[in-house]
């Protein structure tokens, strides 16, 4: 069982001497990033704004109860003890000390039962789950990582259309990795340098850190 600690033990970086890794995916920064929300979610938002004829005649439509999705609040930081914080609509990883410690973004997550449960599929977000991490299927050499404005509790109900928002977790020796469901083989990573954007990478080395601590707040 995890025990929350603000200063987990140092974990040595991977060894040197490997061939130069491919470049990590670049965080796509847009003031209003293009939305690739599942179509069913987009339709449900549109329908919620339009009243049906039954409501106009004074009848209330009968709706089946929906299952409530429990949202978990965790801390996520890399093996070099860099925390996540938001700046200019990008998630960066850096050492936050003193008053800056209050800038740390907590990570909100829900399981995504549309995918094989043994792979521990999750959807990750910040700001109480109103901004979710997404990686649409790549259309170039490297996939993008974005923040999308969407309710984290709605996404699991969109089925496999939520793949861009889904990450498979794997655990070893107290550390977690997060693999993009839409881009197999690409993992969340931080840079060995401080205050760089959270990204995606296929390589684990001294430059790209794929391992994270992930603990309940």
UniProtKB/TrEMBL annotation:
Keyword Disulfide bond attributed: yes
PROSITE patterns reported for this sequence: INTERLEUKIN_1 (PS00253)
UniProt-listed InterPro entries: IL-1_CS (IPR020877), IL-1_fam (IPR000975), IL-1RA/IL-36 (IPR003297), IL1/FGF (IPR008996)
Pfam families: IL1 (PF00340)
GO CC annotation: extracellular space
Biased composition (Low complexity): 37-49
Keywords: Disulfide bond, Glycoprotein, Secreted, Signal
Main location class: secreted
Annotated localization: Secreted
Stretch list, region Disordered: 1-59
GO molecular function, one term: interleukin-1 receptor binding
Family listed: Belongs to the IL-1 family.
Protein name listed in UniProt: Interleukin-1
Taxonomic source organism: Lepidothrix coronata
Lineage per the UniProt record: Eukaryota, Metazoa, Chordata, Craniata, Vertebrata
Gene name tied to this protein: LOC108505651
């Amino acid at each position: 069982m995890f025990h929350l600690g603000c200063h987990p033990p140092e974990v040595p970086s991977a060894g040197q001497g490997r061939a130069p890794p491919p470049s990590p995916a670049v965080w796509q920064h847009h003031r209003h990033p293009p939305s690739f929300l599942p179509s069913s979610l987009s339709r449900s938002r549109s329908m919620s704004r339009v009243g049906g004829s039954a409501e106009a005649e004074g009848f209330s439509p009968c709706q089946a109860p929906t299952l409530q999705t429990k949202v978990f609040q965790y801390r996520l930081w890399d093996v070099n003890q860099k925390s996540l914080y938001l700046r200019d609509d990008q998630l960066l990883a850096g050492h936050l000390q003193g008053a800056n410690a209050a800038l740390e973004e907590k990570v909100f997550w829900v399981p995504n039962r549309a995918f094989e449960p043994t792979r521990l599929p999750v959807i990750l977000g910040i700001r109480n789950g109103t901004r979710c991490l997404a990686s649409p299927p790549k259309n170039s050499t490297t996939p993008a990582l974005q923040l999308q404005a969407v309710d984290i509790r709605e996404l699991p109900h969109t089925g496999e259309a939520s793949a861009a928002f889904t990450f498979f977790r794997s655990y070893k020796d107290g550390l977690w990795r997060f693999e993009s469901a839409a881009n197999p083989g690409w993992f969340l990573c931080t840079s060995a340098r401080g205050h760089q954007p959270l990204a995606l990478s296929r390589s684990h080395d001294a430059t790209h850190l794929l391992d994270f601590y992930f603990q309940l707040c």
